[in-house]
């Protein structure tokens, strides 16, 4: 019986495939070539003020010849006609088919008087033509502070963003926006040698292709010399590619057009040509191909098909045996990265072959993998599958998923199968920082300018975590092996296994057995409070600074000194701090910069947490807009005052050493110490 059902379903499946192939071939489309834009376009376009059509262009925000102020503006222009974007029942939201569309437009984003541009312009698919009030500035004419992120916005936009918000990677990127200006995916265009709004006049052609069959969107961009020049060929590779189910975002009938905004900085957002090709879906009553097949084959078979589908579904469900809680939590995450198939990840890592191992840490093993179909190199983090692992997995995913910063390792997706939990990241071709700093005397090591660039990147990532991202986060495990280097040796902070949002109080080091931060990177107060804070992160940053400049690990014993920081402090007191600089640089470094980093490293290592600089100050010091704080000749004593009782004590000697700062505090597990005794955690491996 079951065999029969499977056979019949297979037979029908083939027929359906054949019907679908036929349908693809007969793709019915309608093409609109728009522009040059004269005032006659006011008849067929919905031009929402203060947008205008002037100077042969759609001026999505006011152009300079108008009577308008250019600041704090937002506008929209639509082709005044809705298109049916999916076929199905809008009440029950059963979707039979999603329309495909292709569009390309010629655009000029112009800086006024060569001043800093702002904010951006988008290609927009929206169910509602009206523009919300207050959608200027960061809201790009899409949403406002009260509506951003609501699914009732019913809009999808491709943004060309020229102004960096907290949540943006930079001030020159493209992004996919779904009901929110916080993009689901962003790509910096600087990586492609494209500047959206350079000084002077530049034209760009943008292609947006949406495939309603495999539900994916691709965006391409190329420069065009002049308005009158022929359209350049579409590049072979998209700058942005993402999964997108239009039917889950916009209403059945929606508009195509543009939106844009300015803020305290302004730009002109001019669209000069626009081609639009949309697949025309069959009308609701006319009946689609699959409906015709249903009638031809007959009702009993339809019942069998349903039965077969049911059996298959239950069989599959049993096989997957995923924890519904975890899946539910994952699926409810906003803007969740994509789910990978376990099969694909297994293949990508050659069945998690040891040869592919990049590193190992408290949470599991990291493997290198490649997805040849997508031409993508990935790093797959496989969690050890206990209950704790699941919580950690969720914690990491929840946090990292919402963090977007060019100096953080980007998360691509996840996979959960048979109790196995996997996270997929961009592969960082240059591995971890420690591998380059502690590579032994024989190998060439990072030159000075790279070292400076790397610590600056780490500082900006830390600042983002501590201040800019709306939910404040402490990293808790800042160390050289958690700093990854991308192909351009940009620092990317990784391993959020330990990161915690500050608000939720779960900042204790002790709560996660066996996986606290690493010796030498841990602020002394943590030995008593067992609680990570922004200040303890800064302490870890100080340790990284010193090891990057000195080329020595924090717990290096030098002469009488058990810790690197104590040795550097002594050299500082004796006025010869430069002797601390890594000898392998052979004197090839910038003296003022080395002094700045070393003194900053000492300042961050201040035993009293409140005396350490904040990340804001660290950034200013690194960019030389603030002087290095005064560092006293003697390392101040660590004084523990806030908690009286048997736990409180103070160290009065001028130099703390390992013996001083390792009272056996309740927060620390033996596991931690045993690892630490060997001087390193995770073999300094490339844990991301
Ligand atoms: C759009 O077109 C409809 C009729 O086709 C018209 O009634 C409406 O005013 C137009 N809207 C705009 C903003 O031009
Ligand atoms: C330009 O602005 C002035 C002053 O606000 C106003 O009197 C005039 O009507 C405006 N002109 C146009 C064409 O809007
Ligand atoms: C969009 O362009 C691609 C080629 O880049 C083509 O395969 C596809 O059929 C086009 N879709 C539509 C709706 O025109
Ligand atoms: C629009 O389509 C026309 C006709 O195919 C083509 O010549 C032109 O280059 C296209 N323009 C853009 C901006 O893609
Ligand atoms: C650009 O510069 C000109 C001349 O300096 C000035 O009149 C104009 O107001 C400036 N425009 C803007 C938008 O700042
Ligand atoms: C653009 O020009 C202005 C003044 O002419 C200059 O200050 C600025 O650095 C230039 N910006 C870029 C990115 O070239
Ligand atoms: C945002 O837009 C909605 C309607 O689209 C409006 O009701 C609300 O007042 C606006 N909020 C702000 C802060 O402007
Ligand atoms: C979907 O189809 C497009 C071609 O229309 C292709 O470029 C893209 O890679 C496909 N995406 C996926 C996820 O298969």
TrEMBL record:
Family indicated by similarity: In the C-terminal section; belongs to the protein kinase superfamily. Ser/Thr protein kinase family.
Alphabetic keyword roster: ATP-binding, Cell membrane, Glycoprotein, Kinase, Lectin, Membrane, Nucleotide-binding, Receptor, Serine/threonine-protein kinase, Signal, Transferase, Transmembrane, Transmembrane helix
Taxonomic source organism: Hibiscus syriacus (Rose of Sharon)
InterPro entries per record: ConA-like_dom_sf (IPR013320), Kinase-like_dom_sf (IPR011009), L-type_Lectin-RKs (IPR050528), Lectin_legB_Mn/Ca_BS (IPR019825), Legume_lectin_dom (IPR001220), Prot_kinase_dom (IPR000719), Protein_kinase_ATP_BS (IPR017441), Ser-Thr/Tyr_kinase_cat_dom (IPR001245)
Residue intervals of the Protein kinase domain: 352-631
Entry GO terms, CC: plasma membrane
Transmembrane parts of this sequence: 293-313
Record GO terms (molecular function): ATP binding; carbohydrate binding; dioxygenase activity; protein serine/threonine kinase activity
Kinase is among the record's keywords: yes
EC number: 2.7.11.1
Enzyme class: transferase
Signal peptide: 1-21
Name of the protein this chain belongs to: non-specific serine/threonine protein kinase
Location(s), subcellular: Cell membrane
Protein residues bound to ATP: 382
UniProt topology in membrane: Single-pass type I membrane protein
